[in-house]
Amino acid sequence: MNDLVDPLIVAISSRTLFDLEESHVLFESEGLDAYAEFQRSHEDQLLEPGVAFPLVRKLLALNEGSPPEAPRVEVILISRNSADTGLRIFNSIAHHGLAIRRAAFSNGAPPYPYVRPFGADLFLSTNAQDVRNALSAGVAAATLLPSRVPQQRSDQLRIAFDGDAVIFDDEGERISREGGLAAFAEHERSRAAEALSGGPFRGFLDALHRLQAAFPTGQDAPIRTALVTARSVPAHERVIRTLRGWGIRLDEALFLGGRAKGPFLEAFGADIFFDDSEHNIESARGLVTAGHVPHGIANP
Predict the structure, then answer these.
(1) DSSP state letter for 285
(2) Which of 11, 77, 205, 281 has the most C-beta neighbours closer than 10 Å?
(3) Distance of alpha carbon 203 from alpha carbon 193, whole angstroms
(4) For position 1, what pLDDT does the model report?
(5) What sign does the CA torsion over 190, 192, 198, 204 have?
(6) Catalytic residue among 121, 130, 162, 164
(7) Burial status of residue 178 (CB atoms within 10 A of its CB: 0-12, 13-18, 19 or more)
(8) What is the SS3 assignment for 295?
(9) Catalytic site includes residue 162
(10) Neighbours of 108 (CB within 10 A)
(11) Which contiguous run of DSSP H or E holds residue 280?
(12) Which candidate, 195, 191, 178, 266, places its Cα nearest to that of 228?
């Protein structure tokens, strides 16, 4: 096993890590002072896990066997709380034994500017505007909606990606919208040997692939990935050749030809799924944790 790998760095908001919806409603209805007083008066009351909590647990478990000073994965907390009101969050982090050492508390200001200096490969937040701003700054980012999904059955970390406008650019979606499915199919068939351009998650996919290379391959590997795309034959070939050219391994590939993605993601057991389409996110939400990537023609 090769441990000499740059860590995968994931930045998360406090509202994705813990269930802060009650206090968030208070903030929106009564303002910052009421919110701050609520957090201080409840700082010894542990927070319930949020939508990203199971994912964070699995990410940090990948550090087993690596020295604390050289982790394979680092999770960074990015929060609109102040350090004062954030004490409750860190009490909850300590209670759950989460090895989160770095944080940025912006005290109500947009916290996304700190994502890039931390070197984050991925940013997860419930704030759609922060996610859009992080994407504009060149960081893979997705909006997670508060939800309760079943605990995935495996200790293996399973991550699923849409293709167009997530791993790849939105060229295919633009052709499909302008000329229809027949035009899209012909466009992809005639350019099968021409590599697709990278999308907003290309860098994160590279970093994830480097992390995978630190572990043995096979079905028992601690990370398993999947491409889950609405593409069908013959639009598959360009995707396969592009990933081959990038030197990227995806363990599974599902070419669904327009079928609803939710049941397939449930069958895969995804811990998180990234897609640019809000329709696909709704199909998946409730079955798996889903992150909306507000990028490309589907998200003007």
Answers:
(1) B
(2) 11
(3) 22
(4) 42
(5) positive
(6) 162
(7) exposed
(8) coil
(9) yes
(10) 14
(11) helix 278-284
(12) 266
What does the pLDDT read at residue 2? 44
Q: Are the C-beta atoms of residues 20 and 92 closer than 8 Å to each other?
A: no
Asked if 183 contacts 194 with a C-beta cutoff of 8 angstroms, the reply is: no
How do 8-13 and 252-255 pair as beta strands?
unpaired
> Are 195 and 109 within 8 A, CB to CB?
no
Compute how many other C-beta atoms are within 10 angstroms of the C-beta atom of residue 250: 21
Q: What is the pLDDT along the chain (300 residues), one digit of tens a residue?
A: 444 568 999 999 999 999 988 877 877 788 777 888 888 888 889 999 999 999 999 999 999 999 988 999 999 999 988 888 889 999 999 999 999 999 999 988 899 999 999 999 999 999 999 999 999 999 999 999 877 777 766 789 999 999 999 999 999 888 888 888 778 888 888 899 999 999 999 999 999 999 999 898 888 899 999 999 988 878 889 999 999 999 998 999 999 988 999 999 999 999 999 999 999 998 898 899 999 999 999 998
Tokens of 245: 């050219």
**DSSP H or E run through 134:** helix 128-136
| DSSP assignment letter at 74 | E
**C-alpha to C-alpha distance for 269 and 199, rounded to whole angstroms:** 24
| Helical packing angle, 87-95 and 32-41, nearest 10° | 40
Which residues are CB-contacts of 224 (< 8 A; sequence separation ≥ 6)? Answer: 156, 157, 158, 159, 251, 252
Q: What is the pTM of this model?
A: 0.93
Question: In the structure encoding, which two tokens stand for residue 284, read together?
Answer: 């998946």
pLDDT at 26: 78
**H, E, C per residue of 176-223:** HHHHHHHHHHHHHHHCCCCCCCECCCHHHHHHHHHHHCCCCCCCCCCE
